[in-house]
Amino acid sequence: MERIKPSIVxxxxxxxxxxxxxxxxxxxVFPGEDWQQVKPEAQGLDSAKLEQAISYxxxxxxxxxxxxxxxxxxxxMIWNGPNIDxxxxxxxxxxxFTSTVLGLLIDDDKATLDTLAKxxxxxxxxxxxxxxxxxxxxxxxxxxAVGDKTTxxxxxxxxxxxxxxxxRPLFQPPGSRYAYxxxxxxxxxxxxxxxxxxxxxxxxxRRIADPIGMNAAKWNWGDFGEVDGIVVNGGxxxxxxxxxxxxxxxxxxxxxxxNRGRWKDKQLISAAWVEAATKAHVPASMPLEDLSGADxxxxxxxxxxxxxxKADGKRKWPGAPVGTYAASGYNNNDMFVxxxxxxxxxxxxxxxxxxxxxxAIYDRFLEKxxxxxxx
Length: 375
Known about the structure:
- It is a single chain.
- Helix 3 runs parallel beside helix 5 and helix 3 packs across helix 6.
- It contains nine helices and 14 strands.
- It is about 25% helix and about 15% strand.
- The chain has one domain: DD-peptidase/beta-lactamase superfamily (Beta-lactamase, 3-Layer(aba) Sandwich), CATH 3.40.710.
């Protein structure tokens, strides 16, 4: 009798039976209308040790604890909190959606990383004529908008008029310094909108969200209204112009990236883009702009955070696999994609003022999750 190939078995077995498959990659599945929910042991984790990891995170979080926590392995939901369908803004986690639109436009040969922003937004031609899409997505553009003055503790690009370039850049030339800057990301979204010739939410919905089954009632992308005839979605996540989404739906986006842009038998965004976007592109040795809201040197990719070596010589999450990367936003909104473990972890909330979850806390949590893996 002819032996059935492991790849065929992987297409037929359910998550519950995946234990018979010899490797984790062979057991990868994709959710249908909903995620398949199984016990951790069915996907090679010790329940007791996983609960210890989750308890650690809960004890080191604010009031939302692990209510919006989702853990996916091999495409199966092995743990979830009670509020994973709660929909709210995720602040700067929005940025990873913005750069995904760039990836789609590059796939379509409508843009490259070296496309000049001024070619689509002429107001940038005077003081920002060298700024490229690469500069925007790595936070090295030096873009400064009218109204970008510090507002209380908010220093990194709070302008309510992000599409009005200030005459004087934050720094010059572009690519010479790192500055995590919100108005730059909003202008980036504006440029992408001109290239796409449609709202970037519409492009994302058609090309990504609908094909991966994201519930349209559980996500939407805030916007600035029409700008020069087209609705411009917030590229940064500030000013209430962020992505609004639930943890359950966000996990689908993470699962797409875990599978390098493939969903079932369709490549929705190129694997080359996923690999490039989720690796660090900002040198650890690059100077940091004093007003920058976060230090991404050595760890910042194309609007994703990689597990690289920081400017202080230390790895961002030493207890996690080197290939780990994350999309992150204010209020403890974070999604980790861990290829070495075939895992996606989403933790959303609205509780940073109660208790900010630091890299050190997430590192210890991830280390504990790794300790729960038995195969």
